[in-house]
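Anyone else keep sequences and structure tokens together like this?

Example one:
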Amino acid sequence: NLLDYLNDDLEPVKVVIKKQCSKILGGEKFLVKMWANIFRNNECIKFHTHHSRNVVDDIFKKNVFKTLCGNLFLYGDADSDTIYYFDEKTPVKNVVGDIHMFSCITPHETLPFQGNLRVGLAFDVYTENFFTDMGLVTPPNLRLI
């Protein structure tokens, strides 16, 4: 978890995440896992979602809207998109400083990067009681913000 290493430097990011999650999910405290994505020429992230739990599970259906995923684009020396799959394929231009938040069950990917360096932060956010409401043990790699 990047918050273990750059916690103070990430304070402004945490403030924005917390504010947006409070508006979207409700609550004041959130569990977060954060990591950096660094791409060099021709690297990408393949099609995936951040939750592997089956969405037809009734407990997960009840709690799916207590979690969000997001990314913050920091730097790129060439244009790039993150592609989200809502009802249809939706490319979203990466703009320095923009944070995009989306449901944890939204498939997404990036195409192979065509520059020398692209840097972003990605994160998963859960309400403070998400895991206990699901009857699960809270993963130890999450940090409370």
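And example two:
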Amino acid sequence: MSSPTRPTQIYPGYVFDLDGTVYLGESLLPYAAETIRELRRRGSHIVYVTNKPLETADDYARKLTRLGVPTARSDVVTSVDALVDYLDREHPQATVLAVAERSATDELSAAGFTVTTQPLEAQVVVVSFDRTFNYEKLNAAFQAVRYGGAAIVATNPDPYCPTPEGGIPDCAAMLAAIEACSGARAEAVVGKPSIHMARALLARLEMPAEGVALIGDRLLTDIAMARSMGMTGVLVLTGATRADSIEGAGVQPHYVIGSLSELLPEGSAGR
């Protein structure tokens, strides 16, 4: 049975995915600014979430503001935010070897973790979306896990990241290579759809899951997380998911919309 289109109510809280939902590349997607502005006018609390760890929350807030959606750093939760929260709880003050780009490594250092390039010093191998991934990094992670006993923690499970040209390999590709050679498995993948990311989002919104709608373009990350935590999952068909792939999928959204113009209930557009 196909999911209904268009939500029938305004929710107290909204979580918006970014890539493929609010914008694609450097272009705001249609109706994003107008819809978010109307939801704020109606008193809804809004946060943004991304599994993409290539930039900081500050960077994403500045980008959204530049594109026409005024945003504060506190309105954005990234997979690196969820990573730092997880490491603080499970591996406090750990020494980490980071298979990651500079922005993620800098955030780990700023959060008080010692970042090393020496495999046998590492207690945790952090694996992230890394466009500088190479054999040297793969071997360092292998040595740290196989011979140093380091745990593996990854930022996100995405196999690829959507781009205006189609997509590029994401964190899951780096993680698969490290798991394959080391024989170990990540103890946690902290981005969407994990409970770690969901908890970070609900804490930022300061409200229970049943009052929150999560809008995203991926069934297995955005909608799966919404479903698992009791949020309302709204799939938007402006990114990674096509309409013909929903029927029969293991994860089903509560609502399916063609663009963010359909997020507001029928007849409730701002005046």
